[in-house]
Amino acid sequence: MRFETFKAGHWQTRYQYKSFEPVPINHDWTWEDPRINVLLESANRALGELNAFSLIIPDVDLFIRMHIVKEAQTSSRIEGTQTSMNEALMPESHIAPEKRNDWREVQNYVAALNTAIGRLATLPLSNRLLRETHAILMQGVRGEQKQPGEFRVSQNWIGGSNLTDAVFIPPSHEGVPELMSDLEQFWHNEAIAVPHLVRIAISHYQFETIHPFLDGNGRIGRLLIPLYLVDRGLLAKPSLYISDFFERNRSSYYDALTLVRKNNDIGHWVRFFLNGVQETAARGSKVFQQVFALRSKADASVQTLGKRAANARAALEVFYHKPVIAAGDLERELRVSRSTTHLLIKELLRLGLLEEITGQTRDRLYSFSHYLSLFTGSAI
Are both 351 and 210 inside the same structural domain? Predict the structure, then answer.
């Protein structure tokens, strides 16, 4: 199928509305647009460099957690949650009651992605894995009554208050199993010569168009991207937080998906997606470089603490994993006395490595702010 002659699907008349019925995608894809080839080359190069950093940096799993939290926070933000990176890293007890639902949605995303990545060791990317991941995503949050872990058996819609004024109506639930089966076959079809980044670009569009769950489709569709990249060996770790690109270009993201359905313009969507991969991977590589530089500088600083240097280095390792933490939690992580913990915090504050972020005298939280800023964008 050539991009230039692609027909995305058709509108099917239903009772008082029309649903969009997409065509299957499990077949060869070609294109004439040379811009796609150039973008594909750039995106693959940037992704390879990002993957190299994740392979050579010592204790990389300390830092991968931040990539996952960043992906969770921005993907959830696209859906309207208001949890910041700082808040996403805080204990629930420090989150304002009115913001805890949003906070839990981000935590569920983190748990869902971590669990799914772990499952890839024994279970390939599949509809079964997506359903398991969806069940984790929706546990105990808004939408938990909407068939978590199961493909929908009723009609859903996007935008508007009901089917009569919806912005977009996905295909009938009756066709969801067949469409999702076609999508799964496309991921693993070795008989077709479709580059992986083009394959996942098309897959993301198709998943969002099918909208197979009653809720959580946007987040699962974006979570599908790092899952595919890890499953197919393009990334060793889920270090690409492409939802950051989608969130910063939210209108263009939705417009690009819509143009496929309205104008059959799959080429525009693929170009947008490849540009996002290239930009996000390049930013991720820069973050890894900055993490490495910060770690060297921080290690040099704590070396000046004499006999406390060993405990201070251990504390920094905790802060790389949990950049926002209470003194009591740090004490438990280090397995040292309360007085030793408070002396360590005092020294790290003096060195400018930590910052107290609550302004309170009790229940204080300490942030490894220089490290956190690498992921919030202020240091990029």
Answer: no
